[in-house]
Amino acid sequence: MTISMAFWLVLISSLVCLLYAIFRTLWIHKQDDGNSKLQEISGYVADGAMSFLKQEYRVLIPFVVVVAILLFVVNSGFGRWQAFSFLLGSFTSGLAGFVGMKVATASNKKTTAAAVKSINSALKIAFSGGSVMGLSVVGLSLLGFFILFLIFSSILDVNVNTITEHFLPVITGFSLGASAIALFARVGGGIFTKAADVGADLVGKVETGIPEDDQRNPATIADNVGDNVGDVAGMGADLFESFVGSIIGSLILAFAVEGTGELKLRLAAIPLVMVSIGAIASIIGIFFVRLKKEEDSPQRALNVGTFVAAFIVVAALYPLINAILGTHVADSPVQVYEIFLSAVSGLVAGITIGLLTEYYTGFGKKPVKEIVTSSETGSATNIITGIGVGMFSTMLPVITIAIAVGLSFFFAGTFGIAIAALGMLVTLGIQLSVDAYGPIADNAGGLAVMSEYPEEVRNRTDTLDSVGNTTAAIGKGFAIGSAALTTFILFSSFKVATGTQSVDLTSIPVLIGLLIGAMVPYVFSSLAISAIGRAAFKMIEEVRRQFKEKPGILEYKEKPDYNKCISISTIAAIREMLIPGIGAVLVPILVGFLGGINMLTGLIVGTTVSGIVLAIFMANSGGAWDNAKKMIESGQLGGKGSDAHKASVVGDTVGDPFKDTAGPSLNILIKLMTVISLVIAPLL
C-alpha cells in the first residue's frame, strides 16, 4: 500500500465518521423534547452555550488571522502553505467543538425526556449525543489531513524528498492551529463553568441550603452551560489536537527511520491506516453500547463498547502492517511484530490509565471513601485528604506512561513511541464519545430537577450522572496520558528538525531551560485558578444580591435573572483566557530566540515532566472530591444539609478549578509549546 492509497483510505474513513455523525444528529432531533418546562429551561442552556461560543470565536478569529499572516511572512515558497495549514487546523478544531456542543445541548433535554421511559432509552440518547462529538472530531481531523495532502500532491511530486522538505514542515501548522484553539477553548470554557459552579454551590448549597440544580438558584443555568463549553467543546478541542499531533509526529518520525525512500513512504502509511481502521472500529464499538436489563450498569455498557473497538483494532493491525510493508520487511530496521507491539503497548497504557483514574476518582472506591470519612471532621480534613489522594494517584499513571515509552522504544525506537501514542488514540472516536456522554448526562440530571420531573425520572438521570462523573474523570486522565506520549513524539520530531543528537544536562542553557520549563505549568495553573477566583467572587456577589433584592425567588414567587449570571461567566472567561493563552505561545518563542536551541530543548523537557505530574494530581484530586460529595449526597454521614455535606461541598469547590480548568489545560499547554518549538525550529 502506497502513501497515496493510505491518504485515500483516510478520506473514506473520515466521510464514514461524518456521515454517521449526521445520521445520529438527525435521529436525536426526532426524539421527544419533554414537557414545556423542560423545553424552556433547556433553551436557556442552549442559548447561553451558543452565546459564549460565538463571543469566544469572535475573540479568537483575529488572533488566528494574525498568526496566519505571520506564518505567511516568515516562510517562503511552498512553506507559505503553512499559513493555510494553520487556518485549516484552527477552523476544523473550532467546527468540531461547535458541532459537538450544538448536538450536546439538544441531547440533554431529550435524555431527560427519555428517562421517563427507561434508563436504557436515556443512555442511548446521551451516548448518541456524545458519539456525534467523538466522530466529528475524528472525521474533521482526518478530512483536514486529506485536504492538505490533496493540495500537496497536486503541486509537488509525492516522493521522500518533497515530503520531508516541504510537506512535513507545512502540516505542523495544522497541529499548531488545533493546539491554539484547544488551549483557549479549555481555559475559557473551564473559567466559565467553574465560576458558575463555585457561585452556585457556595451560595446555593452552603449558605442558603437549597439543593443542587435548583431552579431558584440564579447561577444554575450558567453552571449547566459551563458543562457544555468546558467538557464538550473544551474536551473535544483537547483530544482533537492530541490526535492531530500524534499523527503528524508519527509521519515525521517515519521519515527519520533509516532505510530506502520506498520503505519510509510505507512506514508513513502505517499511522494513516491505523487511524482509519480505528475510526471504523469506533463506529462498530458504538453499536455495542446498550443495556440488556434496566438494572445493568451504564458504566459496564460504555466499557463494552470501548473494549470491542480496541479488540477490532488489535485483530486487524498485524495483518495490515504486514501488508503495508510487503516485500520491504527485510529492508526495514523495525519489523512488523515490533511495530504491532508498540501500538498494543500504547493501547494497553491508555486503558490502564483509564482504569486507574476510575479507581482513584470513582464513586464508592476506596480513595473516595477516605475523603468521605474525613468530611466528618470538617472542610480542612476533607481538603487535606483530597490533596493526599491526588498526589498519590500520580504514581501508577506515571509508571504506566514510562513503561509504555520504554517498551515501545525497545521494540521500534522513536518510531515505536510514535506508534504507541497513536495506539492510545487509535479508538478516539468511541473514547471521546464516552467522555462527551458525561456532561450530557450531567445536564440531563440538572434539567430533571429544574423541570420538576417525578422522583423516578430523577433517580434514572442521577444514575447516568454518577457514571458521567466517572467518565469525565477517565476522559481527563486519558487526555493527560495521550498528551504525554504525543509530547514525547513531538519532542522527538523537534530533535529531527533541529538535528539534535543528544542533550547535555550539565549544559547551563539546558539547565536554565529545565528550570523555566518546570516553573511554567505552575504559573499557568495559578493564572487559571486565580481567574476562576475573581470570576467566582463576582458570581457569588450576584447570587447573593438577587436573593437579597428578590426574596420571592426562594419562595418560587419571583424568577431569577439567569442571563446576568451567564453574562458574568462569559465576560470573565473571554477576558481571563487571554493572558495564560498568549503567555503559552510567547514563552517558547522568547526562550528559543533569546536562549537558542539548547535552552528551548530544556524548556520543553521541563514543562513536559512538570506538567504531566501536576495535571494528573489536579485532575484526580478534583474528581475524587466531586464523587465524595456525591456519596454524601446519596445519604452517607447524614446526607444533604449535614455538616459533612457542607465540608464536602467546600472540598468539591476547591477541586473544581483543579479538574475542569487548570489540570486539563496543562496537557494542551505542553503540546502547544512543543508544537511551537517545532514550527520555529527552522528559524533558529
In summary, what is this structure?
With 684 residues, the protein is an all-alpha fold.
Topology:
Blueprint: H1 3-29, H2 36-74, H3 81-114, H4 119-155, H5 160-208, H6 220-254, H7 261-286, H8 298-325, H9 336-361, H10 366-374, H11 379-392, H12 395-425, H13 428-450, H14 455-498, H15 508-549, H16 562-576, H17 578-633, H18 643-680
Helix pairs in contact: 1-4, 1-7, 2-3, 2-6, 2-16, 3-4, 3-5, 3-6, 3-13, 4-6, 4-7, 4-13, 5-6, 5-15, 5-16, 5-17, 5-18, 6-7, 6-12, 6-13, 6-14, 6-16, 6-18, 7-8, 7-13, 8-9, 9-12, 9-14, 10-11, 10-17, 11-17, 11-18, 12-14, 13-14, 14-17, 14-18, 15-16, 15-17, 15-18, 17-18
Arithmetic mean of pLDDT:
86
Count the DSSP helices.
18
Task: Indicate the proportion of strand residues.
Answer: under 5%
Task: Please summarize the sheet with the most strands.
Answer: none
Give the overall silhouette. globular
* Unreliable stretches: none
User: Helicity, in percent?
Assistant: over 70%
Q: In angstroms, what separates the terminal alpha carbons?
A: 37 Å
Tally of DSSP β-strands: 0
Q: What is the radius of gyration? A: 24 Å
Content-based structural category: mainly alpha
List the secondary-structure elements in sequence, H or E.
HHHHHHHHHHHHHHHHHH
